[in-house]
Every structure is written in structure tokens, then in C-alpha cells.
Amino acid sequence: MAYRQVLLGVSGGIAAYKAAELTRRLRAAGAEVRVVMTRAAQAFVAPLTFQALSGNPVRLDLLDPAAEAGMDHIELARWAELVLVAPASADLMARLAAGMADDLLTTLSLATAAPLVLAPAMNQQMWRHPATQANARRLEERGVRLLGPASGEQACGEVGLGRMLEPAAIVEALISAPAAGNLTGKDLGHIAATEIAPATETAPAADDLAISRPTASPLAGRQVLVTAGPTREAIDPVRYIGNRSSGRMGYALAQALVGRGARVLLVSGPTALPAPAGVELVRVESALEMHEAVMGRIAGQDLFVATAAVADYRVADPAPTKIKKGQAELTLRLVRNPDILAAVAALPDGPFTVGFAAETERVEEQALNKLRAKGLDMIAANRVGGPQGGFEREDNALTVIHRDGRVDPLALMPKARLAEALTDLIEEAYAARSATQDS
Ligand code: C5P
Questions:
Q1: Of the candidates 227, 304, 216, the residue with the CA atom closest to the CA atom of residue 260
Q2: What does 80-142 look like in DSSP terms, one character per residue?
Q3: What is the C-alpha to C-alpha distance for residues 149 and 121, in angstroms, rounded to an integer?
């Protein structure tokens, strides 16, 4: 892992027990870990647990003369190459957003030049509260990176968004996309990539950190809705019309976008893939369900990326019971499905739209026609049916076409790398469009 000295902050919440496993995993990934607990965290897990797992004394108090006589809080803030708070409670996020320094953890977060990463964990209603959402946005705009929360069943018995990401997913996210520097005071969401300063000079110089720490992205804090996978159009309760899309490209893109600090909502047709870390996943089956899920959530999205292979037609009258093979011939009447991407692109003040086109011939020409017809900002086209990748494969090649007709070919490569390359182009085009809209 890029970070060799991790300061792990544990705030109060039932997910504090997961921080014990996180400590173990961070050490296994090669980091030295020092733990700071808030007062509330100590009600959930004993400090001794973290002392044993981290192999270092655990810090609890700002005004502890004995502890301050050793490594004082300013030294500790300088020592950290990364400040990771997991779980980050609603209260802690509020105090951080307000810039308070009323306990050791918030003081350290202000006193450090290291990147700050939070793994929020709270009741789903608390997470959805406008106050928490505003705090999250404010923190992200200052360059703080949020990992999660994930959705699922909660300790309080409710279901929704608010679970802390699993420790393995947090460590994986830190390894695959190290956080940007703590660019306090800059509104990262509203300035172009070229204006953003690289990691601060005071940031500690780990050998591998220097090359792997990216500058903050213009996508940081942006809301992105991604569609992925195939759709299934019911013929009867047991049969459907489907297609060969695996969903890999869309899931890889969702992951790459999270890596740039975006908040990603993934609306996916049926796939065998697990939810990427840090992504909110909504599962659907048919094109009509996908249409409804997208249109119901599109307000407030900054970008819309349509990778889904949506069926163009559905069965007009799916049979309510299993169709028996009595007749020699069977005719299915198909009707057109709504075009989700075109509908989103036609919205007044709609998001930046990226479409995909799978073509078997005259790929560039057809993709450009599609971009114009649907009114998109960008389209990524791939040739299917040939040796160059496409559906159900690990590798793919894309030709990216912009609104102004510019063409960027992306060579055959694994889908995860291709997703990063495509995200670079999306970042650039999105920043350019935002710059023209602001001027
Ligand atoms: O027109 P065509 O289906 O080739 O366009 C492909 C693009 O449009 C993809 O980005 C796909 O996700 C999107 N699409 C959609 N809804 C449809 C059909 C396609 O969002 N009903």
C-alpha cells in the first residue's frame, strides 16, 4: 500500500468493531497503524483491543499530559501519511465539516497535511438527512474522500444506505486509488483539473506515495448515475429475452469513478458481479424497470453514463403462466422500449451524458450519428462480433467520439484499465464543459 503510516480514527457507532479488523488488514498491507478513539467509540470497543492489534499505544484524549509528553498531537499529525476515520459518525462528520477541534481526532484532522479519508457509518435516515448530506458535500469539496457508505441491513434493523464499507473493501480502495492531498480551502468541485494544485509540499514523501498520489479530480464530489448490464424482457414467468452483456465495463467504470471521488449510483440489470466498493447499487430486471429507476433518480445528477445493453423491444403481452409447447408455431409480438439515454439527454439542464455504441460495422460513423441523434456529450463505441473484444470478454477497445467530432481511440486492454482511460477522457470533457458553462 502507498501509505506506510496510517492514523486510524475510530468514532462512536456499532461499526467501531469493524475497525479492529481494519487495523489488522492495514498492518497486513504493510502500514504502521496508530489509533485515535473518540470518547463515544470507547463505549463500543475497548482501547486495549486496538493497542493489541496495532502494536502501538492508543490515543484517547487531547489534554492527556502523559501522552502529550511522548508523541504530542502535532507530532502525531505530522507523522500521519493518511488519516483514515472508520467509522465516521454523523456527529464526527458535522464537527469536521464545521472545522471544529473539540477533541483529539478533530484537532489532528485540522493539524495534518495528510489526506483525510472517511468511511461513514450511521442509521440510513441520519445519512439521508440534508444536514449530513450537506456536510458530506462540504467535506468532499475540500478534498476529503468518502468511501461508502454501503447499503444493506443495519444494526438498528432498518435497511438502506449507511453501513460502513467492509474493512477489505476500504483497504482495497486505498490501494487501488490513493487519496489526493488535503487541499483545504479549495472548492475542488468547481475548478478545472489544470487549476488544482498537486499534493501539498508538506505531504510526507513515501517512496511510492510520490508517484501514486493523484491530483484532485473535477469529478470529486460530483453525482454520477451509471447504467450497466443487460436487461431481461419477460416472455412468461420463467422465460425472457436477454443479451450477452456481462456488465463488466459498467461496473469497472463505476469503480473508476469512485476512485476519482465521485458519488456513484449504479443501476444494473442482472449480472453475476458483486457491487463495487463505495457504489450505491440498484438492481433491476427489465428495460421498463431500468427506465423508471433512472428517471426517478436523475434529478441532481451531474453525469449520466449509459453502459447498459438495454433491450430495444419487449414482449407486448407476457404470458401470466408458463407457455406450453402445444402449438407448432409461436409468435411473440414485440413493442419498442423507451430509450433511457435519449430521455436523459433531452432533459432541460440535464447531466453531462456519455453513451455507448456496440456496432458490427462502420463503427465511427454510426457512433457519431448516434451521438447527434440522441444529443450526447460523448460516445464510446466498440466493434462487436469481431476479434477486438466487446461483450462477455475481459479485454475491450473503444473509439471515443466527442460532441465537437474529436475522436480518441483507446487500444485493446483489460476492461479495468480501459475504464480508467475512459474516465480520464470523461474528466477532461466534463471539466471543459463546466468551464464554458461558468464563463
Ligand atoms: O441506440 P443504441 O441502443 O445503439 O444506443 C446505445 C446507447 O443507448 C447505450 O449507451 C445504451 O445504454 C443506451 N440505451 C438506453 N436505452 C435504450 C437503448 C439504449 O439507455 N432503450
A1: 216
A2: -SEEEEEEE-HHHHHHHHTT--SSHHHHHHHH--S-EEEEE---HHHHHSHHHHHHHHHHHHT
A3: 6
Q: How far is ligand 1, taken at its centre, from the CA of residue 339, in Å?
A: 6
Cβ atoms of 262 and 304 closer than 8 Å: no
Alpha carbons 151 and 155: distance in angstroms, whole number = 12
- What is the DSSP pairing of strand 233-234 with strand 240-241? antiparallel
Whole-structure pTM value:
0.58
Say how far apart CA 181 and CA 208 lie, in whole Å: 15
Write out pLDDT tens, residues 22-62. Answer: 999 999 888 999 999 999 999 999 999 999 999 999 999 99
Contacts of 133 (CB under 8 A, 6+ apart): 127
Spell out the domains of the chain, with CATH numbers in brackets. Answer: 5-192 (3.40.50.1950), 223-319+329-438 (3.40.50.10300)
β-pair type (5-10, 32-37): parallel
Tell me the CA–centroid distance for residue 311 and ligand 1, in Å: 8
Tell me the best of 341, 344, 361 to mutate to test the pocket of ligand 1, counting ligand atoms within 8 Å of each CB and taking the most: 341
- Report the separation in Å between the CA atom of 109 and the middle of ligand 1, taken as the mean of its atom positions: 45
Which of 245, 284, 339 most suits a substitution to test ligand 1, by most atoms within 8 Å of the C-beta? Answer: 339
Q: What residues does 153 pair with on adjacent strands?
A: 159
**pLDDT tens per residue, range 90-141:** 999 999 999 999 999 999 999 999 999 999 999 988 998 889 989 998 998 8
Residue 379 Cβ < 6 Å to ligand 1: no
The rounded Å distance from CA 98 to ligand 1 centre is 43
Annotated catalytic, 306? no
Q: Is 249 in the pocket of ligand 1 (CB under 6 A)?
A: no
